[in-house]
Specification:
The complex is a heterodimer of chains A (607) and B (80).
Chain A (H helix, E strand, L loop, with lengths): L6 E6 L5 H9 L3 E5 L6 E8 L5 E6 L11 H11 L10 E7 L3 H12 L5 E6 L1 H6 L2 E3 L1 H8 L3 E4 L7 H11 L13 H8 E4 L4 H10 L4 H19 L2 H21 L4 H18 L2 H17 L1 H15 L4 H9 L4 H7 L6 H10 L9 H11 L4 E3 L2 E2 H28 L8 E4 L7 H35 L9 H4 L1 H13 L6 H6 L9 H16 L7 H8 L2 H13 L4 H11 L3 H27 L3
Parallel strand pairs in A: 1-4, 1-5, 5-6, 6-8
Antiparallel strand pairs in A: 2-3, 3-4, 7-9, 10-11
Helix pairs in contact in A: 3-7, 5-7, 9-12, 9-18, 10-11, 11-19, 11-23, 12-19, 13-14, 14-15, 15-26, 16-18, 17-18, 17-24, 17-25, 18-25, 19-23, 25-27, 26-27
Chain B lengths: L11 E6 L6 H9 L7 E7 L8 E5 L2 E5 L1 H4 L2 E5 L2
Chain lengths: 607, 80
């Protein structure tokens, strides 16, 4: 060691409560990035030992052994063995085990202790193990393993000081690699003080949640509540954000004289970025549900329930978790496919992930639904707008089912994946872990709004503002953007898209929600043209578009592969351009045909 | 009998596993989850109305979900 801050890695089985322990030790001082060269998420943070020395903590991906069967596990092995290019080897390990699952988790522990790194074992979730009727003796375990064993309850911050103290004593004290004298089962048995009937609560809850009929109804109900909540709970906070931007526009209008700078700030920056930031509440509500489902342990039950149906199209329950994450964003969804063991199934899941309605589509859906679908009730607690939103989600899912069936049958020629999954016990989600997760998602979203969307908004504003139209001509039509759009317009005109819609789908390539910004900026500039005060976007659209056009626009967004980041991630995860190109091709074709059918059908009904 | 035919709620000991019927990666994960010869296993739930697939089984203090195809390769005898 040459004065560098000691690096301590947290390592353990999935579901050992490793991330909760990491959160408890580092608080909000976390850095999230990627390991060099791969897309595996790297989480690190600072903490202090009892004597004040700073240490860097690294949260390694959960693994079952040092023999990797997934990309995540390979990262864990390489870091522990010091083989990872660009990541220094940890100076010590904190091996996290679930006290209630000792016999299983000890297997990996023994494998880790056979390495020549100083180590401390964190016997985590001892409270749950006790409630489950399992009492363990950490002293016996420490004697058997030859390393300190500390009882912890990460979510209640119990045992953290003892853990730091144990770390301080083992750090820099070289430890010879030791072959375990006994096997995991034997050690686990001697460490048990008392054991009674297992997991009462989990078994009772599973009787409901895993019921062949009841469990499925609960799952559908949960999903429906989730999508309704995205609408219902977000109304008020969206109002506050809109109010804030309106005040800012007002302030700029009164402070600056009419001219380019004022137009740049209000039409470019506020209309562009503001119309996207407004959807932060909805995105956070969606992530709140997903994080809660994961934290409670319900997500794996959902995977179990869905396995049979997914098997019908050649996928498995494993695909369900990445696909559900894709409802928030396809990028973490595609990255989550790494836990799928079957490579063909993994590829198919990547290809259909963009069909799940990601949160970036919500701004588009909300705007169009708000403008065209009346806010009336179609039943107790069910609004028509929420129902349409639900149908749009279903549209994506049905598209994904069909695509998966075709892909697995004709493209990957898979013989049906495999399904093998540990279902952890149910847990109360811990407020702080959820809060940290939500904060990280909010930050990523706002950073996107502050960078990509900010830049694209400004570029779009410039394209719409220049060159200046002569008196009596429409600024939007005359501008550079208007001229570019005129080239695309004939292509999308058959499926009912007008000039503004054609213009909106171009910047949507950078980020889907840009479609809303584009419409926002276009109409803001048009409004100035008409010498009228800028009106809210919704009513303006309702006046300009027919319902058939609006529906076609919505359907286009179910399928169109609009986000460049998703394509980039698909390229990284599949190691080449072939599959991302296949993805983009089939999604565009699907979007065009589906939007067309929608438009022609709706027009035939006179909408 | 195989794990597949074992009635729900009956604990049994695994006597043999036909590893050739199971993919390499699956076999590895099975052992990592504690499903190995000599382990005690108890089917808890069977999924979906059709095909009785997948299964949720208790192994040690863990609940593991696996497919019927894998269960067919696991030979076990009632522990009582």
């Amino acid at each position: 060691m040459t004065g560098a801050v000691p690096l301590i890695a947290l390592v353990g089985n999935p579901n050992a409560g490793k991330s909760a322990l990491f959160n408890a030790l580092t608080g909000a001082r976390q850095k999230i990035g990627n390991y060099p060269g791969v897309t595996v998420e790297r989480k690190s943070g600072r903490a202090a030992l009892p004597d004040g020395r700073p240490v860097e903590l690294l949260d390694l991906p959960g693994a079952y052994s040092l023999t990797p069967y997934s990309l995540d596990e390979a990262v864990t092995r390489d870091v522990v063995l010091g083989r990872f290019e660009g990541q220094r080897r940890p100076d010590a390990l904190v091996v996290v085990v679930d006290a209630g699952n000792l016999d299983n988790h000890l297997r990996f522990t023994l494998e880790l202790l056979a390495q020549d790194l100083p180590a401390v074992v964190a016997l985590n979730m001892v409270d749950l193990a006790k409630r489950d009727g399992l009492t363990l003796d950490p002293a016996v375990l420490a004697a058997e393993l030859g390393v300190p064993v500390v009882e912890t309850v990460a979510v209640r911050k119990r045992g953290l000081d003892a853990l730091s103290e144990a770390l301080a004593t083992v750090l820099h004290r070289p430890r010879a690699a030791s072959a375990p004298a006994k096997d995991a089962k034997t050690i686990a048995r001697v460490a048990v003080i008392s054991e009674t009937q297992t997991r009462q609560w989990t078994r009772k809850l599973d009787a409901i949640f895993l019921h062949p009929v009841g469990g499925l109804l609960v799952l559908l109900g949960l999903l429906f509540v989730m999508f309704q909540a995205v609408y219902a709970w977000s109304e008020a906070p969206i109002g506050w954000i809109e109010g804030g931007f309106a005040i800012a526009t007002e302030a700029i209008n009164s402070a600056l004289p009419e001219g380019l700078l004022r137009s740049f700030l209000t039409d470019g920056v506020i209309a562009g970025v503001g119309s996207v930031v407004v959807f932060l509440p909805q995105i956070l509500i969606l992530f709140l549900f997903i994080l809660m489902l994961e934290a409670t342990g319900y997500m794996t039950r959902a995977a179990y329930l869905m396995d049979r149906m997914m098997a019908g199209v050649g996928l498995s329950g494993h695909s369900f978790i990445p696909l559900l994450s894709s409802f928030a964003c396809a990028i973490p969804g595609i990255m989550a496919t790494r836990s799928i063991m079957d490579q063909k199934e993994r590829l198919a899941t990547i290809l259909i992930a963009p069909l799940m309605t990601c949160s970036a589509r919500l701004p588009v859906y909300t705007l169009i639904i708000g403008a065209f679908i009346p806010a009336q009730s179609v039943g107790p607690g069910i609004g028509l707008q929420g129902l349409v939103l639900f149908l749009l989600y279903i549209g994506g899912i049905v598209g994904a089912i069909l695509a998966a069936a075709v892909i697995q049958r004709f493209v990957t020629k898979s013989r049906g994946g495999s399904f093998l999954l540990e279902m952890p016990r149910y847990q109360m989600p811990h407020f702080k872990d959820i809060a940290i997760g939500l904060w990280q998602r909010a930050w990523i979203f706002l950073r996107r709004a502050g960078t990509i969307i900010f830049v694209v908004s400004i570029v779009l504003w410039a394209l719409l503002t220049f060159p200046k139209a002569p008196e009596g001509q429409s600024q939007v039509e005359y501008s550079i953007a208007g001229r570019i759009t005129s080239v695309i317009e004939p292509v999308v005109a058959p499926i009912g898209f007008n000039h503004d819609m054609a213009l909106a789908i171009i910047p949507a390539m950078a980020a889907r929600e840009m479609a809303v910004s584009a419409l926002g900026t276009t109409y803001a500039i048009e409004a100035e043209d008409d010498d009228a005060t800028a009106v809210a976007l919704g009513p303006k659209l309702a006046a300009d578009w027919s319902i058939a056009m609006a529906l076609a626009f919505l359907v286009w967004f179910i399928f169109a592969p609009q986000c460049i980041s998703t394509i980039a991630v698909a390229r990284r995860e599949t190691n080449g351009w072939k599959w991302p190109m296949v993805m983009v091709g089939y999604l565009f074709a699907l979007a065009y045909v589906a939007a067309g059918i929608t438009y022609w059908t709706a027009s035939a009904f006179g909408l | 009998m195989t794990l597949d035919t074992l009635p729900l709620g009956t604990a049994a000991r695994i006597t043999a596993i036909d590893w050739t019927a199971i993919a390499d990666s699956e076999g590895h994960r099975l052992r990592a989850l504690g499903v190995d010869i000599g382990a005690t296993i108890e089917p808890l739930h069977r999924g979906m109305l059709f095909g009785r697939d997948p299964l949720a089984v208790r192994v040690g203090r863990m609940t593991v979900a696996l497919r019927r195809k894998v269960a067919l390769a696991i030979e076990c005898e009632s522990a009582s």
